[in-house]
Amino acid sequence: MPDDTDRRLLRHLLTEPKLGTAELAERAGVTTATCWRRLERLRAEGVIRKQEAVIDWRALGYAVEVSLRFTLDKTNPRAFDEFLAAAREVPEVVTIETLLGRVDVRLSVIARDMGHYQQVYRSRILTLPHIAELEALMLIATIKESEALPL
Amino acid sequence: MIDLDDTDRAILRALAQEGGLSAGELGRRLDLSQPATWRRVRRLEEAGILAGNRVEVDRAALGFGVTVFLGVKLATRGRVSLEDFERAVVAIPEVQVVQHVLGLFDYRLRVVARDIADFERVLRRRIMTLPGVGQVEANVVLTEERRPGPLA
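^ inputs. structure came back:
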């Protein structure tokens, strides 16, 4: 179980993921060696799952991002598995979430422009299996995006 | 916008898996010298394509067992200021993501909570009291998966 020092380290790391071990140690008030050892342990225990680079798709020319919310035909017991497997085959799908509520699955889909989006939507999205209902939210701006937790 | 070659795409794919890789280690995997790798990473950062790091944690192990996506519609009556809503919503520590969207809702929020009771507290005390907030729809996150995207 993570203790108070672990929580303090994680609070700083989640707020500023760019920090190196030495800077992180200083902010959390521990030695660099302690910081390094604790981060290693948190990784080994699976508390820290992954450290990954964030790719800005807009900077890569993908100007359009749409959040697609699906309700699936649940009379088919394989609906979720088959839908998810097919969605993973679409390169423009950058996030897949399964949900509990009115919406079953949400996909984030990126495209170069509206023409490209329409093409992806018609040929790759509407052809996904077991769709009962589908609605779209077009992303205008991301105001906040953080993994920080109120630890 | 800069042109990417196969090596750039391989660098992006590798760093999207392991953000902490050093230029030396990354270069070894791609059969590239350390300085050449470093130059390419720098170029991708300067173009804004590599936009920092994300640390993914097991939220449940840290006591946050519930993640909820909220669709928020602002009330149509009266003049609603998007700035007032945004300023207030980004200050809520439990709100990790705020996106302005076009469609059935005006905003999408990702909210973390310790459990369902804690979520109810956040929803009632913090979300429903936001300036201009109207209809709210909640969907609890079961699984989340980030895909490599069109980098092949």
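Residues 6-46 of chain B form a domain with the Arc Repressor Mutant, subunit A fold (CATH 1.10.10.10). The mean pLDDT of chain B is 93.
thumbs up if we can close this ticket
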